[in-house]
Input
Amino acid sequence: QERAAQEEKDKLALEEKARQLEEKRRDRALLLRYPTRAVHDKERAEALNQIGVVIQAANNRIVELRRERTGIDAEMKIYKKDPSKAPAYVRRQQEENIQSQAVQRRFIGEQESEIKRVNSRFDDELVRLRQLWTTIAAPNGK
Output
């Protein structure tokens, strides 16, 4: 039993040492990637800008779909009293347009969630980086 207990203790010590080494490796990689706050801020801005471009494209598509919808609605006006008499292709266009707009809105919502995720990641990194930068700046930091 004592041998098993010692083996378990040794195993836990090795796991802790491996965890610490991995943490140091991640910290070094983080510092290499972001040596200064300006570099970190720039990369955050670039990541958010890329998402913004995607959101703008989706918004442009919604505008385009709304224009198409105006034409479809004008054609459906002819069948205002009995929409079931409208040609199947017009009804199909109308339904596809509605679905496409919903897809675009859902996509924009997902991209807004991605913005929150990206900001959260950069905020978490910044907390750790501030600690690392302070340690490096301290005269006896290492």
The mean pLDDT is 94. Residues 41 and 122 are 9 Å apart (CA to CA).
